[in-house]
Amino acid sequence: MRTLQATRDVALALAGLAVVSGVMFYMVTRPTQVIPVYGEDLYLRYCASCHGISGKGDGAAAWKC
User: Fold this and answer.
1) What are the pLDDT digits (tens) for 37-58?
2) What are the angstrom distances between the C-alpha of 26 and each of 9, 20, 29, 35, 60?
3) Is 52 helix (H, G, I), strand (E, B) or coil?
4) Domains of the chain: which residue ranges?
């Protein structure tokens, strides 16, 4: 019974260490500078392929009927 409790305690300690290590790794490797994204940049990145640069629906990925 004592061996089972010791095994459980070691497993919980290792799991806690893994979580703390993962959080620390994330904090160290995340980008420190936030790049501002403006409306025009968002439109060109996500919308212009279908809607076209002028917004008339003549983008390269638009349905051609």
Assistant:
1) 788 888 988 899 989 988 888 8
2) 26, 10, 5, 18, 38
3) coil
4) 1-30, 34-65
